[in-house]
Amino acid sequence: MRFLRNIAVLGLGSMGAQFNPLLLSPIILRLYDPEAFGAFGVAVTVSTFSGVIATLKMEHAVIQARTEAEAERMYWAVHRMAIVLSVVLAAISSLATYALFPGTLSLWNILLILPQAVCMALIRIKQYYMLKIQNYGLQARTRIMQSGLTAGITILAGFLLANAVVLQLAALLAIIATLMVLPAPRRRPFTFATLRFALRKHRKFLYFSLPGETMNTMTVLAPQFLFAQVFGLAAGGQMAQTNRILLTPSKLIGGAIMEVFYRTALTDKSEAGNQALLFRYLSTAALNATIGIPLFTILYVYAEELIPFVFGKEWVELGVYVRVLAPAICVMFVFGPLTNLHYVLGTQVVDMLANMIFLLGIFLSVWWAQTPIEALTYMSYVIIVSIIGNNVVILFSVLKLNMASRKECA
Fold it and tell me: Does residue 303 share a domain with residue 165?
């Protein structure tokens, strides 16, 4: 019951966070054209890529700390490291994008990418600290606040100037406000010894989870980036909104399930042993399927007629994009959150390899395709095969651990 209650709290927070942009999206998409969202998608890709790498996955050191004092020391060590690394990485990646793909980023985009990358790194660390202290309620409320601020600023500014810079600035101001509201642990002095201890103790996250998480993030962001470069900014904008619509169920409830599943699976393994993991895996998959299959069936059937009516004729291709990708994203919704079990089982190398294959498949799908629809079709096959294959490995690992546990008991 506690597991379901925690999911409900984070799920309601995520639902409220998505309600604002969903309710206001007809206004937003009529103010901003696909080209603006295409350029904004490129900037978000660069800043998110930098923010994810900057933590070196050491936010896991916070949630896995055995005492509150250790969690505080880990938090501040990772916090300071992430600030430095995110600035450096954002500067390098944004300038490289500006040089290699001229016309996609303006100077203002680059200037905003730097603080955006820093904030994205820091909010990841704070969110994991919230999971550590199990303050799900505050985490849910701040998600609603952040989305409301983003949508509100986007609309108000859009009546004056509707371009990618405004979209980027709205997102940045909202995430800064969220960082100010979320509490930080008691301040501890930074020492390199603490950072070295975290990197050494949790080096598996650095060696295996960081590449895997980076590639997993890029599989979400790479399509809109690649579409913008290969098929034009308008196609990139259509792809960005396709991701937004199809990933909304994951943000509404799938993200909450994933976070609580990860935290509960850690507890199950330490307190109830390996046998509890199989039940947790199967019950979570059944819950995801019960929610996801009806939702994505509706999107698949009605997307082409409904989306142009709601968002305007400029977004007519968006309905086709959504219909083509809906079955694959349904599979991702059901089985994607369960891949966090790799972090519990210590099989991060498998997740890293799966994400490498996944990301390579996405790149090849866009590279070989002659049209955006053809690229989306290839991407659907890649998503389904990689997600199912990754979960087969997880299920086999859990069953193997169960058999070993039973032999020990016997």
Answer: no
CA distance 410 to 399: 17
Q: Considering its fold, how many domains does the chain have in total?
A: 2
φ, ψ for residue 191, nearest 5 deg: -135, 140
- Cβ distance 322 to 239 under 8 Å? no
DSSP secondary structure of 11-52: HHHHHHHHHHHHHHHHHHHHHS-HHHHHHHHHHHHHHHHHHH
136 lies in which domain range? 16-201
Q: Of 176, 201, 226, which closes a domain?
A: 201
Burial class (CB in 10 A: 0-12, 13-18, 19+), 106: middle
Indicate if 191 and 243 belong to the same structural domain.
no
CA distances from 76 to 60, 185, 328, 336 (A): 13, 8, 39, 30
Task: Report d(CA 129, CA 234) in Å as an integer.
Answer: 39
35 and 115 part of one domain = yes
- pTM for this predicted structure: 0.77
Neighbour-count burial of 399, counting CB atoms closer than 10 A to its CB (0-12 exposed, 13-18 middle, 19+ buried): middle
Does 210 fall in a domain? no
Contact criterion met (CB below 8 Å) for 264 and 403: no
Among residues 193, 63, 180, 32, which one has the least CA distance to residue 133? 63
193 and 309, same domain (yes or no): no
Task: Note down pLDDT in tens along the chain; length 410 residues.
Answer: 565 676 666 667 767 777 777 788 889 998 999 999 999 989 988 998 898 889 888 887 788 777 888 888 888 888 889 999 999 999 998 888 888 888 788 888 889 999 999 999 999 898 888 878 777 788 778 888 888 899 899 999 988 888 899 999 999 999 999 999 888 887 777 677 777 777 777 777 777 667 767 776 777 788 888 999 889 889 999 998 998 888 877 766 766 666 666 666 666 665 555 667 777 778 888 888 898 899 999 999 999 999 988 888 889 899 999 999 999 999 988 888 888 777 777 777 777 788 788 888 989 999 899 999 999 999 999 999 988 988 888 888 777 776 766 666 65
